[in-house]
Task: inverse folding
């Protein structure tokens, strides 16, 4: 696609008052932020307590990703599959063009050239986002490599086009709102064959930051299928043992399962070291050495604030000490931020995320409130985070939030059983998710909202990628959230999860004793030194009847995909 021609077409359609090409500089970031402060769209935080940081408050109707408004418009409906919303591409494009006609009147069209992945990596992908949201520009500054350097490289690369609008044109002299959005007409639409994205009506998160879930997962998963690699909703972390041996792990956890906390884990066992490559997305390719190598296509963290504390994620708190953008958290009287679970009591005079004095019994921060900060701010950023070749993956973990049935940790006997582990991944809904609290939601590979094509074909892609002469990573299932009959957690989690990783390390090194179960290989023992009252037998137990019920539930779930569900997994379910 020709950039100039596309830009001219979008300018003629959206009719902005101005066009601004972003250079990606720090000066530009703070200039745009200060312009937003002056018009009331941002709040500058106390420069002594939180230097160069800002707070945004969204419209209460625009607070999260919206799966019901997200579409995969492949040429054939069966290619989108039963887990995605689909509409005929031509009809959807007509609908979008009507919405986008004149949508940027009175606003600036920001041109954001960006790269997902290190600039010099052969595995990275170039894109351009057009947006009328300065808030989106600020977030893209931290979440991608963006600006003049990318623009200069575009002449030698193809790119993915994306256009985003909050959907609120302004008449001459009309005062803007602090968070413009158009939730009644919200649409986030992907055209996988064209590698393009159109987003309308929302200014929030993955709806507006087109490089994140839209390109790096939904579009990239299709590219990965076509080219023979993986685009996954996985963290990447490097873990070094006291003996100096280092392994990199990729892990897929659904929402509210401790993904960012695990990516930045502070080990409780002496001598262990954790370094973060990324907390959300992994692009993985087979190397010439037969191993699986991963890059993080993102350049920052866009994390959930509530629950982040010194106990759960001290490294993230250090990263957020300056140069951070917060959204929908509470504001303290001295100009700092606060949220539930931060580890300190709410101060007097707290202002809630709604911009009014906080009342006890109501949320001070929205459950899906966020922070955005550069990966470089992390005190444990892995030295290979910007490596163009990526890092070699030794193990892949799948982990959901299950109070019962699923053991603390199991190892797959084979790649095929490991793929089944990923396909069976499920989690109990929390209060922040749609649906009944405690209800089991199937979330295969933690990719349910993010796979850009038929998920039955996605399972087949994983099976196919494991064939041939390759040094396959070992695959594990983990569950930090098992409870006893009184509803209390059996495992302390957080930094103590290193004890599970220690056993996985031993397995990777040819040590670590195991015992067989219908769910996979279980550890015979774990290092529980310094812990009291851990019921390891309960944590590792597999109730045969409950597990058989789990398998039957998975068989019923597989029926959704009809003949697209791989026969190899059907056979694995019958073992």
Result:
């Amino acid at each position: 696609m020709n950039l100039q021609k596309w830009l001219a077409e979008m300018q003629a359609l959206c009719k902005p008052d101005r066009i601004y090409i972003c250079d990606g500089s720090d000066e530009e970031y703070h200039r745009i932020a200060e312009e937003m402060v002056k018009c009331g769209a941002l709040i500058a935080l106390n420069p002594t307590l939180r230097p160069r940081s800002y707070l945004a408050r969204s419209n209460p109707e625009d607070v999260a990703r919206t799966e019901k408004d997200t579409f995969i418009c492949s040429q054939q409906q069966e290619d989108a599959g039963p887990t995605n919303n689909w509409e005929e591409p031509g009809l959807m494009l007509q609908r979008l063009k009507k919405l986008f006609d004149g949508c940027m009147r009175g606003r600036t069209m920001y041109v954001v050239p960006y790269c997902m992945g290190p600039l010099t990596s052969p595995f990275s992908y170039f894109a351009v986002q057009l947006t009328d949201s300065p808030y989106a520009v600020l977030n893209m500054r931290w979440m991608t490599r963006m600006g003049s350097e990318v623009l200069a490289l575009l002449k030698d690369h193809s790119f993915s086009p994306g256009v985003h609008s909050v959907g609120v044109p302004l008449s001459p002299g009309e005062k803007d709102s602090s968070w413009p959005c158009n939730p009644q007409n919200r649409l986030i639409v992907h055209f996988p064959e064209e590698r393009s994205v159109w987003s309308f009506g929302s200014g929030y998160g993955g709806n507006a930051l087109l490089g994140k879930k839209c390109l790096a997962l939904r579009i990239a998963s299709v590219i990965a299928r076509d080219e023979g690699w993986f685009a996954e909703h996985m963290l990447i972390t490097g873990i070094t043992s006291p003996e100096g041996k280092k392994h990199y792990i990729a892990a897929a956890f659904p929402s509210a399962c401790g993904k960012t906390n695990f990516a930045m884990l502070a080990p409780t066992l002496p001598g262990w070291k954790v370094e973060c490559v990324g907390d959300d997305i992994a692009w993985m390719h087979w190397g010439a050495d037969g191993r699986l190598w991963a890059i993080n296509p993102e350049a920052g963290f866009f994390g959930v604030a509530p629950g982040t504390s010194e106990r759960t994620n001290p490294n993230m708190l250090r990263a957020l000490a300056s140069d951070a953008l917060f959204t929908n958290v509470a504001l303290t009287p001295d100009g700092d931020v606060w949220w539930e679970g931060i580890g300190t009591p709410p101060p007097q005079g707290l202002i809630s995320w709604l911009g009014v004095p906080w009342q006890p019994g109501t949320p001070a921060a929205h459950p899906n409130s966020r922070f955005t900060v550069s990966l470089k701010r992390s005190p444990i950023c892995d030295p290979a985070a910007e490596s163009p070749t990526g890092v070699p993956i030794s193990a892949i973990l799948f982990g959901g939030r299950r109070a019962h049935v699923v053991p603390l940790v199991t190892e797959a006997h084979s790649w095929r059983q490991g793929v089944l582990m990923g396909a069976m991944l499920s989690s109990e809904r929390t209060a922040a998710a749609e649906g009944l609290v405690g209800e089991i939601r199937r979330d295969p590979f933690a990719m349910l909202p993010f796979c850009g094509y038929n998920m039955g074909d996605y399972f087949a892609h994983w099976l196919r990628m494991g064939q041939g002469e390759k040094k396959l990573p070992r695959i594990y299932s983990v569950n930090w959230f098992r409870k006893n009959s009184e509803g209390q957690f059996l495992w302390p989690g957080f930094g103590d999860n290193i004890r599970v990783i220690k056993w996985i390390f031993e397995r990777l090194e040819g040590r670590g004793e195991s015992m067989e179960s219908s769910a996979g290989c279980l550890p015979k023992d774990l290092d529980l030194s310094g812990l009291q009252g851990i019921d390891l037998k309960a944590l590792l137990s597999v109730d045969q009847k409950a597990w058989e019920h789990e398998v039957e539930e998975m068989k019923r779930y597989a029926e959704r995909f009809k003949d697209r569900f791989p026969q190899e997994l059907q056979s694995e379910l019958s073992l």
About this structure: The chain has 16 helices and 28 strands. Residues 106 and 170 are 5 Å apart (CA to CA).
